[in-house]
Amino acid sequence: MEISQLHANFHWVIDETPSFVLIFSLNIFLAFTATLGNTLVLIALHKVSSIHPPTKFLLRWLAMTDFCVGVIVQPLFAAFLMGIKSGKWQTLYKILSTLNFIFCGFSLTIATVICVDRLLALLLGLRYRHTVTLRRVRCLVLCLFLALVVNGFIYTLFSRDFAKSVEFVVVITSLFLSVFSHIKIFLKLRQHQAQVRQHVAHEQANGGGIPMNIERYKKTVSTIFWVQLALVFCYFPLFISLIVATATSWYKVGSIVYVCASTVVYFNSTLNPILFCWKIREVRQAVKITVKQIRCFSS
Predict the structure, then answer these.
(1) Separation CA 141–CA 111 (nearest Å)
(2) Which of 68, 81, 225, 243 is least crowded, fewest Cβ atoms below 10 Å from its Cβ?
């Protein structure tokens, strides 16, 4: 849909000043909490050495993506809301659409890659360290990021239908791989938990096993499960609104449905640091130490 067509169908439903102030203020607050929370998580991950390097690298990228949402995307969305009131929103909408395609898609794919990484750690055993190396993970993440950046620019500058089709394939593939990985992990742990414990204990005693125990592994799997559950929960309202809009030829970028659904999506970037601190004990302790150091320095 071209910008001129968007302008013809554009309606700002939130005309009441209290509603506008509430949503605008909420986005500013969430931008601050996402920035602060993910900054603390990034510092904590830098200090934590017990997490396997490829897995920690993926968690860093997920936190960095959420950090960029708090620093760049959500303030831009707040500026977009102001632009709606003043009638100057076209350029902001183009930039915001591109960034949404990039960062939202990247969050989903990184969460999926972490799931697959945890499945490979369970299935490969001793071969995991030689197969899933930090260099290979970096190359994979870079390729995914560049592909999503190109798709974002295609959406903005060339063909929106093509870019949406690519995004749809990415979403479906990511969800399928995530569900498959979690089911496979659950069945494997349930079926071979005793054997895996004996195998890890034996290999660790000989100095050649994977440097993890089952309890730590299960906590990491539980963390990414909650992260993906939160992601689906936050993205679900926007997906439903877009499906309804496509099926009924209804498109109102400035409607209260669109604005609220987008705000819930951005809330995911604030929620993820909370989940990291809740589910990963090492990260929680590192965050506490960092906060104490900041307090001592400020005082």
Answers:
(1) 11
(2) 243
DSSP state of 116: H
Question: What pLDDT score was predicted for residue 146?
Answer: 93
Model pLDDT, residue 135:
92
Q: What is the mean pLDDT of residues 245-260?
A: 67
**What would the pLDDT profile of 167-176 be if each residue is shown by its tens digit?**
878 888 888 8
CA 58 to CA 205: how far, in whole Å?
28
Six-digit token string for 4:
């001129």
Using CA atoms, how far apart are residues 45 and 41, in angstroms rounded to an integer? 6
Q: Find, among 226, 265, 211, 266, the residue nearest to 242 by Cα.
A: 265
Distance CA 252, CA 257 (A): 9
| CA 243 vs CA 173, 200, 236: distances in Å | 18, 47, 11
> 11 pLDDT band (50/70/90 cuts)?
very low
Q: Which of 225, 230, 222 is nearest to 268 (CA)?
A: 230
For the chain, percent helix, then strand, then coil, each to nearest 5? 85, 0, 15
114, 62 in Cβ contact below 8 A? yes
Q: Provide the pLDDT for residue 193.
A: 60
Task: Look up the pTM and report it.
Answer: 0.80
Q: What is the DSSP letter of 208?
A: -
Q: How far apart are the first and last CA of the chain?
A: 54
Share of the chain above pLDDT 90, in %: 19
Which residues in 11-43 are b (16+ Cβ under 10 Å) and which e?
ebebeeeeebeebbeebeebbebbbebbbbbbb
CA distance 294 to 153: 40
